[in-house]
Amino acid sequence: MSGLIGRKIGMTSIFDENGKNIPCTVIEAGPCVVTQVRTIEVDGYNALQLGFDDKKTVTKAAEGHAKKAGTVAKRKVVEFKGFEEKYKLGDTITVEHFIEGEFVDIAGTSKGKGFQGVVKRHGFAGVGQATHGQHNRLRAPGSIGAASYPARVFKGMRMAGQMGNERVKVENLKVLKVVPEKNLLVVKGAVPGHKNAYVMIEK
């Protein structure tokens, strides 16, 4: 999939032509610089490595890599496949790569929620009821398996644990607006991550 690297600005809402209020996310998409061109002859596959957001403290290796493309080292570097246009080292790809009305997939790292119980993490209803002499069992997971057989807990059993802070991809989000002069992309619905989080937008 061809695409761009972006930064989540935040959420807002806009009205469509029927007066319906639509929740949407504003993303600063690009401009991204082509920092490396992968080819079948050299790498065994075709892809473009894109860099986004200038880095303040730079290692010599990152500096040398960016210098080949005639740019400065970037904080976020991601490879994208499937570009129909031919780009060369140092080219800049802007938000105009997307058009209004098309659908995109957006991947990012979800907000970390820390250690959470089964009610919040998996939507369990909780055990039993709050009365009839029950004590401190309301948000418990209940049984996690049988006793003498199989005498173990199966893999994948939904239990309490670390929630969030994992890669999430949301598919088929409609592009509502493209603002080239400000490098902004407005998509319908929510995308993963906190404000200012990096996201990968794929066609």
TrEMBL record:
This is Large ribosomal subunit protein uL3. GO terms for cellular component: ribonucleoprotein complex; ribosome. Keywords: Ribonucleoprotein, Ribosomal protein, RNA-binding, rRNA-binding. One of its GO terms (molecular function) is structural constituent of ribosome. Coiled coil: none annotated. It comes from Aequorivita sublithincola (strain DSM 14238 / LMG 21431 / ACAM 643 / 9-3). The keyword Lipoprotein does not apply. One of the primary rRNA binding proteins, it binds directly near the 3'-end of the 23S rRNA, where it nucleates assembly of the 50S subunit. Belongs to the universal ribosomal protein uL3 family. The keyword Ribosomal protein applies. GO terms for biological process: translation. InterPro entries: Ribosomal_uL3 (IPR000597), Ribosomal_uL3_bac/org-type (IPR019927), Ribosomal_uL3_CS (IPR019926), Transl_B-barrel_sf (IPR009000). Part of the 50S ribosomal subunit. Forms a cluster with proteins L14 and L19. HAMAP family: Ribosomal_uL3_B.
